[in-house]
């Protein structure tokens, strides 16, 4: 194959700079010693990270986001793992329709989901509650949990299961001791990707969150609406750090390129 | 297969998917149906929501030019964002694909990684870069001599399109990159050995083959941009409304839920029609590529 010419490399360099610049700028401004937004910034200080401590609503929102992401991803997996096993192993009528339904939260605009959930949970008396947030997040992270579990279940070596059955393993033992350990990397990656999606969601959550159940993106959004100052950049830098941690976890267990390229396929192990 | 095993293989998949199916019917399909119904309800400043069946909200959206303008703005921004991502993302994917193994996976990570970073944080980055007339972008463009006087990016459609294109770019690169993986590099060499120049190769060999990737990327980028909320809300401010931010306002500020539900329903229906329609078109046009 031919190599990239100088023009192509210049284009590539500018492209990468533009892609990284906004994220880099947020992280740089977070360390500014000034009391206002200044670019470029001189010096280095942690004052805006310390300032977060004076805003309990950001800290509270952080814990809400963390709990919501961890819990809703876990609950989503409780539903997604059996569904993924069924879709991976059986050819049955309605299989394609079910798969399409389970992936549909990817296609429906989050603003529409937010409205639908707001209407629904208000009318059943759960408006603004943490329970409502959990259920709504289970739905939006479900496709991610399902996809990675599905990839793992499709690529699994089923002779191991057959060996276990021939040795007398029954349904639950078979699942707990053989199937689950084999698909575990896919399940953990599904959890991590689902967590990131939940942790970062603004559009749907902004409709459901009430003062007490505001998540971090919602709190940041409402703050930015009023004014933009270095405080919100230091909070953003923390958010980016949490996402990066989850990304590294994802990369360790699964390989980030495979998650991003969505090509778990038959080698999902 | 014995009778019992056969029966089990009929029942087992349904038993395994039943919990998820019930969850989806209960808290996804029912709420969506309720939203469509809500759009036909009446609303008044003092009486609140009245559960009657009227076409008031739909009539208002159809006749008030404010909504036509808002939807036109929404789709204009989505179309321009899609064009921008295609024009820049497709060449980048091509360049990426020609790099050496290690550089390729490194830059793929750098370009696709932002996909998983908070949209609020990414948009905040653009707000910082744009920031007023002496923002960094303006300073840079003027010092490069691209333009003489600063142009406003904040609270303008230009700014919204640039920030949205940045948010959506990974989807386009990913989609084109996937198409490039299916491409046989020998075809390019064959064309070269037959005397084709680089321009001819790109135009006659590469372009036709990655077009399905560009188009399916375009569908994803378009539908996500048309329903985007965070970026238009932060960069566009309170004046420059798009469908998602308008629906948000109707729900959480004006409290006219039925009207907001009608806007959301219209957005959903329009997007489903556009996506399904263009998918069918692409599949017919490029049937041989998908085979």
TrEMBL record, chain A:
Q: Which InterPro entries match?
A: MetI-like, MetI-like_sf
- Is Aminoacyl-tRNA synthetase set as a keyword in this record? no
The record's listing under Gene3D superfamilies reads: MetI-like
Q: Where is the ABC transmembrane type-1 domain?
A: 62-250
Q: Name one GO cellular component term.
A: plasma membrane
Q: Where in the cell is it found?
A: Cell inner membrane; Cell membrane
A Gene Ontology biological process term: transmembrane transport
Bilayer topology term: Multi-pass membrane protein
Q: Which keywords does the record carry?
A: Cell inner membrane, Cell membrane, Membrane, Transmembrane, Transmembrane helix, Transport
Spell out the protein name for this chain. Answer: ABC transporter permease
Q: From what organism does this protein derive? A: Bradyrhizobium nitroreducens
TrEMBL record, chain B:
Q: Which GO terms describe its biological process?
A: transmembrane transport
**PROSITE patterns from the UniProt entry:** ABC_TM1 (PS50928)
Q: Where does the ABC transmembrane type-1 domain lie? A: 71-278
Cell membrane found in the keyword field: yes
Its localization reads: Cell membrane
Keyword field: Cell membrane, Membrane, Transmembrane, Transmembrane helix, Transport
Q: How does it sit in the membrane?
A: Multi-pass membrane protein
Q: Which InterPro entries match?
A: MetI-like (IPR000515), MetI-like_sf (IPR035906)
Q: Mark the transmembrane ranges.
A: 12-34, 75-94, 106-131, 151-180, 213-235, 255-282
* Annotated Gene Ontology cellular component terms: plasma membrane
**Which CDD domains does the UniProt entry name for this protein?**
TM_PBP2 (cd06261)
Q: What Pfam families has UniProt attached to this entry?
A: BPD_transp_1 (PF00528)
- Entry's family note: Belongs to the binding-protein-dependent transport system permease family. CysTW subfamily.
The name this protein carries in UniProt is ABC transporter permease
Question: What is the phylogenetic placement of the source species in the record?
Answer: Bacteria, Pseudomonadati, Pseudomonadota, Alphaproteobacteria, Hyphomicrobiales
């Amino acid at each position: 194959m031919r190599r990239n010419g100088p023009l192509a490399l210049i284009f590539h360099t500018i492209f990468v700079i533009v892609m990284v610049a906004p994220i880099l700028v947020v992280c740089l401004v977070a360390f500014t010693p000034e009391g206002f937004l200044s670019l470029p910034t001189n010096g280095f200080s942690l004052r805006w990270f310390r300032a977060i401590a004076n805003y309990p609503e950001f800290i509270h929102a952080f814990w809400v986001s963390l709990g919501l992401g961890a819990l809703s991803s876990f609950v989503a997996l409780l539903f997604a793992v059996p569904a993924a096993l069924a879709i991976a192993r059986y050819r049955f009528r309605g299989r394609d329709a079910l798969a399409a339904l389970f992936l549909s939260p990817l296609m429906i605009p989050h603003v529409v989901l937010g409205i639908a959930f707001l209407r629904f949970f208000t009318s059943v008396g759960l408006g603004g509650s943490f329970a409502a947030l959990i259920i709504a997040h289970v739905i939006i992270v479900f496709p991610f949990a399902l996809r990675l579990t599905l990839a793992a279940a499709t690529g699994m070596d089923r002779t191991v299961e057959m060996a276990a059955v021939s040795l007398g393993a029954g349904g639950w033992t078979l699942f707990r001791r053989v199937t689950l350990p084999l698909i575990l990397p896919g399940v953990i990656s599904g959890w991590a990707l689902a967590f990131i999606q939940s942790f970062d969601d603004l559009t749907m959550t902004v409709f459901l969150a009430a003062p007490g159940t505001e998540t971090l993106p919602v709190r940041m959004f409402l703050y930015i609406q009023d004014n933009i100052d270095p405080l919100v950049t230091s909070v953003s830098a923390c958010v980016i750090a949490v996402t990066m941690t989850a990304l590294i976890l994802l990369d360790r267990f699964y390989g980030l390129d495979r998650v991003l390229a969505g090509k778990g396929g038959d080698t999902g192990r | 297969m014995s009778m019992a095993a056969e029966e089990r293989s009929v029942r087992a998949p349904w038993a395994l998917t039943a919990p998820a199916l019930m969850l989806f019917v209960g808290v996804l399909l029912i709420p969506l149906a309720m939203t469509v119904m809500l759009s036909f309800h009446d609303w008044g400043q003092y009486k609140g929501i009245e559960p009657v069946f009227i076409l008031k909200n739909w009539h208002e959206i159809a006749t008030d030019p404010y909504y036509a303008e808002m939807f036109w703005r929404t789709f204009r921004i989505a179309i321009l964002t899609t064009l921008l991502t295609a024009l820049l993302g497709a060449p980048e994917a091509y360049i990426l694909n020609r790099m050496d193994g290690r550089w390729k996976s490194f830059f793929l990570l750098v370009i696709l990684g932002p996909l998983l970073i908070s949209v609020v944080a990414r948009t905040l980055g653009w707000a910082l870069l744009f920031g007023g007339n002496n923002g960094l972008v303006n300073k840079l463009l003027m010092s490069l001599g691209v333009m003489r006087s600063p142009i406003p990016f904040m609270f303008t459609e230009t700014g919204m399109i640039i920030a949205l294109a940045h948010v959506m770019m990974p989807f386009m690169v990913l989609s084109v990159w996937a198409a490039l993986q299916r491409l046989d590099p020998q075809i390019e060499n064959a064309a070269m050995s037959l005397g084709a120049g680089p321009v001819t190769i790109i135009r006659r060999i590469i372009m036709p083959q990655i077009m399905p990737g560009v188009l399916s990327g375009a569908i994803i980028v378009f539908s996500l941009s048309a329903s985007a909320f965070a970026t238009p809300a932060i960069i566009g401010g309170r004046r420059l409304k798009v469908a998602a931010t308008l629906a948000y306002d109707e729900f959480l500020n004006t409290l006219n839920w039925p009207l907001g539900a009608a806007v959301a329903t219209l957005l959903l229906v329009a997007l489903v029609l556009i996506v399904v329609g263009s998918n069918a078109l692409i599949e017919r046009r490029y049937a041989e590529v998908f085979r």
